[in-house]
TrEMBL record:
The lineage of its organism: Bacteria, Bacillati, Actinomycetota, Actinomycetes, Micromonosporales. It comes from Plantactinospora alkalitolerans. Belongs to the short-chain dehydrogenases/reductases (SDR) family. This is SDR family oxidoreductase. Gene3D superfamilies: NAD(P)-binding Rossmann-like Domain. Residues 6-194 form the Ketoreductase domain.
Amino acid sequence: MSLDGKVAIVTGSGRGLGLAYAQELARQGASVVVNDVDAQAAADAAATIRGLGGSAVTVVAPVGPTETAKELVGTAVESFGRLDILVTNAGVLRDSVLWKMSDDDFDTVINVHLRGTFTTVREAVRHMRAVGEGGRIICIGSPTGQRGNFGQTNYAAAKAGIVGMVRTWALELKRAGITANAVIPVAATAMTASIPYFATAVAAEAKGDPVPAFFRHDLGFGTSGDTAGLIAFLGSDAARAVTGQVIGVGGDRLQIWTHPEAALTAYREGGWTYDALVEAWPAEFAEAMQSVGESFPELPEELESAAS
């Protein structure tokens, strides 16, 4: 069930999570197209893959434009003769509260995350369907897209949109033998490095020390490498029956997220009028309301000092 002979594209793979994905795919036998907007980061990433004994080429271009999608797929086919796996990981952040977020803040994040995922997957799927040998689409989501997060209107919208597209693609691509799944990674990254709550874990990862068990087990928070095994698995023949899923991974934890379902269903003959809702809401509906955002347990006493 190795990835020998497979070819993968990983967008945004010059560093961080994307680099970990590319390296693991190569470690399992796949040839990799590394993509980043930073030419040096892309070159360095490809060099590490070759250092592992793997094969890698680079495409230095921002995702979003259809031209980049065509270049990525074309490079895979021209360099390695085929395309089997696409991991859409590239992303940017432009965090701001709603009333301060500019049009450019919103458009930039939506263009890279949402449009970039759409254009790249569309081009890859066109090729995969024409060849007729199936394929694997793996799109990177976020807990923010699942639960929301203060100051991330643009990012939450993009990541929630990616999950919606994946569920649709799983239906549309089934007959072609192409799977589509979303991965929700949680790891020490540049984004989490600025959050005091994770300071101890991020510092440990940066020094190469073990991430404390509280983070790895209780929070499912570990290193970028902890998330990469799932990417390789979803890209393999062992996952041929896994599609339309949203799977969380981090530290020692793996989660399959539910698809949205009604938390409560109630009926009233004649429909729910304003007066009926005013009367019924406190007793019938209030307790079923859903929480928003993520909540974390208190840090153990021995980890509090690093977070303060």
